[in-house]
Amino acid sequence: MAKLSPSILSADFARLGEQTEIVSAAGADYMHIDVMDGHFVPNISFGASVMKSLNDFETAPYDVHLMIEDPDRYLGDFVTEKTEFITVHQEACPHLNRTVEHIRSYGVGAGVAVNPATPICMLEDILEYADLILVMTVNPGFGGQSFIRSCMKKVRKLVEIREKYGCEFEIEIDGGAKLENAEEIVEAGTDIVVAGSAVFGAEDLSQRVREFRQKLGAE
């Protein structure tokens, strides 16, 4: 059984609070918060203030994904009572171990993400310290991209490493997840599936979340 983390990047921002409450009530496990700075990735999304605008709504916990340069400067801005994970990119952190410890010092789970072209071996020395490993299955920066199927090899490799060395990190994928490939994603060993347009692009958000949960083995 895998968990569902709908990305608010694909939500209707004029109805953000309403839509996040709908998908949370329908069974979403997390709300994926995609933060982009226009430098690390070629797009700008939103910052901590938009995320915190959801604090008074009945939403699932926050799964924060920082696609930004120098994330250590901003970690504290994304810490709330709802923050479950803060994930940074391996490619953006020259002192990754320090950054992971910085995140955990706030009492939230520390995640590390890798882009499609970054091999898993680049994470070798951080896996025992991370709470979450996020495998990008599209090149980060924009929603609605096509799923890069070859990235599933990374998920299977992470499963092998976790079993061999007794690590406790969860495995998340982000990018191109749809109902049509959800079962394949779960079969590879994914624990958390991020879905943006595949959830928020549906006419009936509640029904789409239920459909995803069924594909993920949650119902």
Q: Characteristics of this structure?
A:
eight-stranded parallel β-sheet, EC 5.1.3.1, 7 helices, D-ribulose-phosphate 3-epimerase activity, globular, TIM Barrel, alpha/beta, 219 residues
Structure description:
By secondary structure, this protein is an alpha/beta fold. The chain has one domain (3-215): TIM Barrel (Alpha-Beta Barrel), CATH 3.20.20.70. Helix content is 27%, strand content 20%. It has an 8-stranded parallel sheet with strand order 1-8-7-6-5-4-3-2. Helix 4 (152-165) links the parallel strand 6 and strand 7. The longest helix is centred in the last third of the chain and has 14 residues, at 152-165. The model has no long low-confidence stretch (mean pLDDT 95).
